[in-house]
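Re-run requested by the PI after the first attempt was lost when the workstation crashed. Everything re-entered from the original request form. Ligand of interest: zinc ion.
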Amino acid sequence: MNDPLIDAESLVKKRKKYELTETGFNEVPRKYRKFYRRWRGTGDQLADNEVLCPVCLVVIRSARELRPGDRVYCMPCMSRLTVVEKNGMLIATVVY
Ligand SMILES: [Zn+2]
């Protein structure tokens, strides 16, 4: 699988699983499309398996629930990101 979630440790912990389907995002090769969707702006809600890329404002979706400390890869802008919790919402910060 080519899930963007990088952290191998996550395989050990129990997480909710998600079935991903394509959402019309077409800025990456077809087999990766289901892992991304466009952020719809104010009022949009992130699911437990989604995190917003602060660089290109694309929503990164994992087949598993995301948790603070996870590392994800944003293919559209090639950023490596770390998931952190802020105001009860998961956000991603860029790893340098
Ligand atoms: Zn991005």
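Saved to the shared folder this time. Residues 53, 55-56, 58, 74, 76-77, 79 surround zinc ion (CB under 6 Å).
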